[in-house]
Amino acid sequence: MKILFIAAKMHTIEPYGIMCLSPHLKAAGHSVRLYEAEDSALVDKVAEYEPQVIAYSVCTGSDRYYIALNRYLKQHLTFVSVFGGPHPTFFPEMIHEAGVDAICRGEGDHAFTDFCNALESSGYLVPVANFAIKQKGQVERCPPRPLIENLDALPFPDRDLYYTFSPEVSAHRVRSFLAARGCPFKCSYCFNPSMDALYEGTWHSPRIRSVGSLVDEIEGVAKKHATEFVAFRESIFPLKLAWLEEFAREYPARVGVPFYCHLRLDLLNKENVALLAKAGCHSVNVGIETGNEEIRRTLLGRNMTNETMINACRLLRQHGIKILANNMLGLPGGTLENDIETLKLNQRCKPDYALAMLWQPYPGTGLAKYAIANGHYKGDGTDLDFTYYDHSHLEFRSAKEKRRIENLQKLFAPAVALPSLTPLVKLMTHLPSNPIFKAIFGTMYLIVHQTDIFPHKMTLSEWGLNLRHIAKEA
Amino acid sequence: MRKLKCVVSILIGSLLGLVASCSTRPKPPPEPEPPADKEVTSAEETPEPPKKQEELPVRRPMLE
Prior knowledge:
- In chain A, about 45% of the residues lie in helices and about 15% in strands.
- By secondary structure, chain A is α/β, with parallel strands linked by helices.
- Chain A has two domains: about 140 residues, 3-Layer(aba) Sandwich (Rossmann fold), CATH 3.40.50; about 300 residues, pyruvate-formate lyase- activating enzyme.
- The longest helix of chain A has 19 residues.
- Chain B is mainly alpha-helical and about 60 residues long.
- Chain B is about 35% helix and about 0% strand.
């Protein structure tokens, strides 16, 4: 059977979910392709390929885009549409949208192949575990199957699928990998608690790949595709000492490419940070999120002190590991003063890049429910965009405060890097929203990402293209 | 180095922002609303309506 994945404009991060599904489908004898949604010849290409199934991996915020795209394609072609990824996982009511034939919730590794096999053999939409299907307006739902316990048993993601149809991504020498799935923490703004509820409390125990399997995959990719930098994208990189010791032996010996990973500051100590550095960890992504300890503990569900974060950042710096600190401004019920506290904590932590985003009320998360219940958010989720770097969707004490928070988010990184700018930045937040603030944000994001966090070569032409994009988006 | 990158970012960003401000064209005036009973004649103006969900190939062989 012919199966087509369609993904929105392909950037430099590979769509890991799609790459994970592809090898199962191919092993079952299906033909699999991936097309770019914004391709001007998309309809012609799809018509020529004649897929029986078109599948989309959808995050909240991009759901309207894919639903509209799917409807557009259905005007011209006949196929079964399947939506997977975070949005249908947490908003299964998406099945009621016109044009949506089936959704896959949770891990689709085996489920999507089972669905396609059943469709091919019967010619009908057949409900299989993890799926909800819609026929003549009637919806049939199946519960999720148990989580895949042994991640080593899974085939390696099919990168060729992506690189074949997106040569520019192949040329980008940063490659993404997953060392684990699941997260034991219950941060209220994160998808992980919802996953844990979907899987009846089994998601929170991280499933960790063996070092051998992980390094085999990276080594294979690096031999086939020029790789300057490796990015691990799981919620939290494995920090068990035995695992990390083995990784710190195997990875440098067999791959030796600098890497980036996600960590939690309260899990760091001298032993694991030293092992990370020994393994070749170049940069880490850590959440500071807010500078107010009470908000962090009670609203965000993150029980760690400012001192813990400052000490952990110092430890990382002592080992020469670069820090990207994530922060959320404009929290529900928060104030500009709270966000200034966040700025000051970042100045004490001294990350190499302090990335601030404007918190978005992704429906289904605990924090969004709080925002709705307390009148901070009056939308229904359909107003959310692709980006969390532009504006807030919340109500604040005044329109002026909201504008100042949005301006602070754009000027946050410069104010952390140059604390002496803080008084000026505070003054500048009074100004109307403008392209200059947006362009400063975009430029610093680009420069620090390319040179510090994900260091890799970029041609002059690539720099030019990126800067032109920043000016266009400003 | 971190501070230098910050200063460079501010300078380049300000320049790009200025360029963006200057190149922002004023929006054209809105076109008048077409009359409600206007007949649409060209094919381009009559996009094919999306197929209804009931017309999708479900519960019937679809892979002939």
